[in-house]
Amino acid sequence: MCFNHGLEKKRFEKNWEKLRVEYAAAGMSEDEIQKMYEYDCKVFNRDRSFYEHSQPLDVGGNDDESESPLIAISANMFTPAAESDPDRRGELDR
Hints:
Elements: H1 5-25, H2 30-52, H3 69-77, H4 81-84
Helix pairs in contact: 1-2
């Protein structure tokens, strides 16, 4: 999944141009509108971060998990505590 920050930011700002007019017409103060805008900016940036750092798990419809690239990577990163902890190395031999 790709997140195009420039395009999404333009959409966000365009939407907020409309919202500012609506909120002002509803009688909200400029300070209240600005606080809502700042909150929405935080949500926008949180969502952007999520989409930029997330990877879809696409196994191509197969039920075999061994074909997933994420499973292969995580299997290579796994190290039992007994192998990495010098105090527990003898526990494997017992």
